[in-house]
Each structure stands twice: as structure tokens, then as C-alpha cells.
Write a structure and sequence with these properties.
This protein is mostly helical and 231 residues long. The chain contains eleven helices and two strands. It has a two-stranded antiparallel sheet with strand order 1-2.
Length: 231
């Protein structure tokens, strides 16, 4: 039987994801060695990149790209609401965590433990996907703000109390560590190691998802899509 597919992510969403991957990776491989500069492997890596000044330049270029992803995303939302006339409330509601996600998590663990016959009937995004979206958005904003302070400490000191500069440096560094840990420990599992997608979830790259997978992972959305197609 020929597997049927439907469009799940448009080109703009896929480009945003690609830009985020590139800028985040570049920031991680340049920022962490500078944060833990005393480690031998950090010094080796910085020298491999061409020295500390080159590493800083790469980091700052990647930071501009990282901030650009945020701007891109806001413009994309504006385009969908103003140009395409989509409901802002509807766009937010579909990604905003709610009581149904708490119940869904309970149902998921109950299913894993054999206490429920079936897992939760997730809609377009499950609870973990919503958490990743909002945690990523919050982290991106924090990193951009603290990054600007770190980039322009003298100018910042003229406007804000002196303690803001070392505080921003600490927040920036440890938020980066947390973000890298989350991507490696949580996000990569869901898009690489999970039994549903191994060896790689291609939906964010191709934009497509099979009807069978949608029915298994997002049954509420699958039902809505079929109802829409039938009407």
C-alpha cells in the first residue's frame, strides 16, 4: 500500500529551524570553550579555530544570526496574522500549554505503566513540544539580552548599575550550558533516538508527515484533518 503524506511544516518554518540549528551550533562550539577557557580541550579547540579573537568573531556573527531567528519568527507570525488573516488567538492557543497537556502527561505515563489502554490523544503539538517551544523562546530572549550586555559592557555600565555586567555574564554562560544539555539529552532523543522516528525525524526537513504516523502520535489532529477533508 502506498503511504500517504500531508504537509505539516511550511517552507518558512523549515528555514527558521535550519537557521536556528546553524546559529545555535556555532554559538555552542565557540561559546562553551570561552566559558571554560582553562580546560585543555577548550584551549586546543580555540587554537584550532584560529585563536581567541577569531573565536569571538565567529561567536558574534552566530549571535547576530541567532537574534535574526527571533526577528524572523516574529515577522512570520505577523505575516500569518496580518497578511493571511489567521487568528492570533488560534495560533497561540495551539502551542500554549494547558490543563489538557497535564492530563495528557498523566495519560502518557499511565499508558507506559500499563494502567491505560491507550496514550493521550495529542493535538498538533504534544506537551513536550510545547515546552520546548516556550523554553526555547524564553532562552533565546534571555541569551540575546545578556549577549548584548556582554558585547557592549562599557556602554551598558553607563546606563545600568555595575553589577549587571557580571550578572549578565553568569546568566549568559549557564543558560548556554542548560540549553546545550537540553538539546543533547532531550531534543535529540525525540528527533533521533525515539522508536517512532529512528534514525531521524525527517518531517521538519521535508515538511511532510505520513497519515499513519500522524494518527499514532497526534490522533486529535488526525481526526480534525480527516473531518476537514471529508467536509
Amino acid at each position: 500500500m502506498v503511504e500517504r503524506y500531508l504537509q505539516r511544516f511550511d517552507l518558512n518554518q523549515r528555514l527558521q529551524h535550519l537557521a536556528l540549528i546553524i546559529s545555535f551550533t556555532a554559538l555552542a562550539v565557540t561559546g562553551l570553550p570561552m566559558m571554560f577557557h582553562e580546560a585543555g580541550i577548550s584551549q586546543w579547540w580555540v587554537n584550532l579555530l584560529g585563536g581567541i579573537e577569531v573565536t569571538r568573531v565567529i561567536h558574534r556573527i552566530a549571535a547576530i544570526g541567532f537574534a535574526g531567528v527571533l526577528v524572523y519568527h516574529l515577522i512570520y507570525i505577523f505575516w500569518r496574522v496580518v497578511i493571511k488573516k489567521e487568528s492570533l488567538v488560534g495560533l497561540v492557543r495551539i502551542i500554549l500549554p494547558g490543563i489538557q497537556d497535564v492530563r495528557g502527561l498523566g495519560g502518557m505515563f499511565g499508558h507506559y505503566l500499563g494502567l491505560a489502554r491507550r496514550g493521550p490523544r495529542w493535538d498538533r503539538y504534544d506537551a513536550m513540544q510545547k515546552l520546548e517551544y516556550w523554553a526555547g523562546a524564553w532562552g533565546l530572549i534571555i541569551m540575546v539580552i545578556t549577549g548584548v550586555v556582554n558585547w557592549f559592557p562599557v556602554e551598558t555600565a553607563k546606563l545600568l548599575p555595575g553589577f549587571v555586567i557580571p550578572l549578565a555574564k553568569a546568566i549568559h554562560g549557564w543558560e548556554a550550558v542548560l540549553a546545550v544539555f537540553w538539546v543533547i539529552a532531550v531534543h535529540l532523543y525525540s528527533v533521533v533516538w525515539s522508536r517512532h522516528v529512528f534514525p531521524l525525524d525527517l518531517s521538519i526537513w521535508t515538511g511532510r508527515i505520513s497519515h499513519e504516523r500522524l494518527k499514532e502520535e497526534h490522533p486529535a489532529e488526525h481526526k480534525r484533518v480527516h473531518t476537514s477533508e471529508a467536509s
